[in-house]
Amino acid sequence: MGKTVAEKIFGRAAGREVAAGELVVARVDYIMGQDGTAPLAISAFYDLGGVRPADPGRIAFVIDHSAPSPNEGVSALHKLMREFAREHGITLYDVGDGVCHQVIPESGHIGPGSLVVGADSHTCTYGALGCVATGVGSTDLAAAMITGSLWFKVPHTMRVLCRGKLPPGVYAKDLILRIIGDVGADGATYLAVEYAGEAVDDLSMDGRFTLCNMAVEMGAKTGIVPADEKTLAWLGQFTPRAFAPVRPDPDAAYAAVREYDVSTLVPQVACPHRVDNVVPVDEVAGTRIQQAVLGTCTNGRLEDLRVAAGILRGRKVHRDTRLIVAPASRRVLLAAMREGIIQDLVEAGAAVVTPGCGPCVGTHNGIPADGERVISTANRNFKGRMGNNKAEIYLASPATVAASALAGEITDPREFVR
Amino acid sequence: MRLEGRAHCFGDDVNTDYIISGKYKFKTLDMKELARHVMEDLDPEFYAKVRPGDFIVAGTNFGCGSSREQAPLAIKYAGIGAVLARSFARIFFRNAINTGLPVVECDTSGIRPGDELVVDLERGVVLNRTRNLEIPVRPLPPVMLRILADGGLAAHFQKHGNFALE
User: Fold this and answer.
1) What is the ipTM score, two decimals?
2) What pLDDT is stored for residue A162 in this prediction?
3) How far is CA A357 from CA A80, A149, A294, A354, in A?
4) Domain boundaries, chain B
5) 8 Å CB contact between A7 and A253
6) A138 touches chain B (CB under 8 A)
């Protein structure tokens, strides 16, 4: 019987042949903690009897969830992370470097075939590089830091085959929202989701990150796009290291297979307060919004900002709507500045904030008021997610968010995209 | 492990933002402080209502969302003895075991708010004393049972120095 990508990667990391369902203790190639989870991992590190990490070169901390610090409580936790990182020789990405899920792929430390754990549920994003990357809690992170390994159940895999060509104005975000709407919030629990088909081949790396980022919103352990030439070319910008792509065997056994023809897909919107509450944009078009958010680990990459700037250029954000832009990383921000994208966004009325997670996760940088509606490119619209449980959050693509910011109401972006 | 307490019932897909909101959890490592806000967005009175040893009872996909370990910790520090649900989200389930919070997968449809329950993890049953119902529990994988029996992953490491899973 052939093997899935997840079975191959777990087999390599465990040092033996494995099949889905088996329990393994596997060597972890890279370990990431962010400022919402690393402080607890540091205290767990000592609770577990840790003295020093097994391999500090394989660990990174990222300060992104509350960056820069909005209050003294957070400042103390940031200080704890900086001191622990300095003491043990751990790489620390500080305020302004960006969202962990952009910074780590850009670091060149991980690539096709890697096994990565991160104390953040959206660690599954890195699967766009053809690796297995999964979210864990702080105690598991501490155990991995101490031993260099962690126990896993090798997941069964759901294959999502996407045929056809995305129409203009329809993006990876619309595709993943549609998939989650169909599969449901727990339809892929414990599974790896392997994406395939020519629509996935055609996606840019930025689009593939979006696809993998939201795998956890259907309960999955990870999302994977098997690596190809595009993956290797993208990684080549950041590291000279040669990675070997891991491809699924043609006779691999899948727990489920879903097929999509993306050529008929229209822009999608996830409505409050569930990510799987997904409708075509025309069903909610005209809904007034007070805030629009462009950014996050889902859609804060260069291509996302470029698409939004293409719609906003030479126009003005609606007077009753705020547009907040949080680029995914310093590198993305710099590239967007060089291209004139930031100029276009700011001239259109956007407020650009420090690369980071704040506007998505309710720590700072744009907490909505009672009764307000927000349209965001983020991945979660749970009640209270953005820091106010009396606000409503709609999720959509960067194009839909940009078009909606102009109109002050949820708007189909296709009229702006030729 | 035998636990007794009253049921506090919630629905499906209780996510980690509902368990402990991001607006609190990023500020502090003081779990007693976080515990005061547990489930606040679903029931502002929840913390005040809980008596030590009570249970959270929920539907499917309990704990979906973030990987924040503050979620099971806040539940534990609020005095909850165990969470019973029809199913759990993957990361929350692991985090609960690692932090020593018993998670019990079973059919919760016959449990109503205030029901008196006895959770017997050795026998793998939940007894609903109020309704005289015996509910079978889906057994934990042996690895998790071992970590939970040790009192969580920290205690497991203190005892064995590493993963002792075989």
Assistant:
1) 0.94
2) 98
3) 20, 28, 11, 9
4) 2-160
5) no
6) yes
Q: Could you tell me the two tokens for A339?
A: 């291209």
What is the rounded CA–CA span in Å between residue B153 and residue B157? 6
- What residues 36-75 of chain A have any CB closer than 8 A to a CB of chain B? 36-37, 39-40, 43-44, 47-49, 65-66, 71, 73-74
Contact state of B163 with A137 under an 8 Å Cβ cutoff = no
Average confidence score pLDDT of chain A:
97
Q: Is the dihedral of CA A164, A166, A167, A168 positive or negative?
A: negative
Closest CB from B18, B25, B89 relative to A186: B89
Given pLDDT bands bounded at 50, 70 and 90, which one contains residue B166? low
Would you state the pLDDT for residue B49?
96
| B69-78 confidence digits (pLDDT tens) | 999 999 999 9
Query: A5-239+252-260 — its CATH code?
Result: 3.30.499.10
Pair of tokens at residue A325: 């832009």
| pLDDT per position as a tens digit, B75-131 | 999 999 999 999 999 999 999 999 999 999 999 999 999 999 999 988 999 999 999
- Written as one string, the DSSP assignment of A295-352 is EHHHH-SHHHHHHHHHHHTT----TT-EEEEE-SBHHHHHHHHHTTHHHHHHHTTPEE
Pick the residue from chain A with its C-alpha nearest to B87.
A186
Report phi then psi at A175, rounded to 5: -65, -50
- 3-state secondary structure (DSSP) of residue A157: strand
Asked if A361 lies within 8 A of B22 by C-beta distance, the reply is: yes
CATH number of B2-160: 3.20.19.10
**Interface-testing mutation among A16, A81, A121, with chain B (most B C-beta atoms within 10 A):** A121
How far is A216 from chain B, CA to nearest CA, in Å?
7
Return the number of CB contacts < 8 Å for A and B: 143
Pairing of strands A192-196, A157-163: parallel
A102/A122 Cα distance (integer angstroms): 11
CB contact under 8 A, A219 and B29: no
Chain B residues with CB-CB distance to A66 below 8 A: 26
For the domain spanning A266-415, the CATH number is 3.30.499.10
Domain boundaries of chain A, sorted by first residue: 5-239+252-260, 266-415
* CA–CA min distance B104, chain A (Å): 17
Give the distance from residue B79's alpha carbon to the nearest chain A alpha carbon, in angstroms: 20
- End-to-end, the C-alpha distance of chain B in Å comes to 22
- Window 289-328 of A: residues touching B by CB (8 A cutoff) are none
Cβ–Cβ contact A35 with B under 8 A: yes
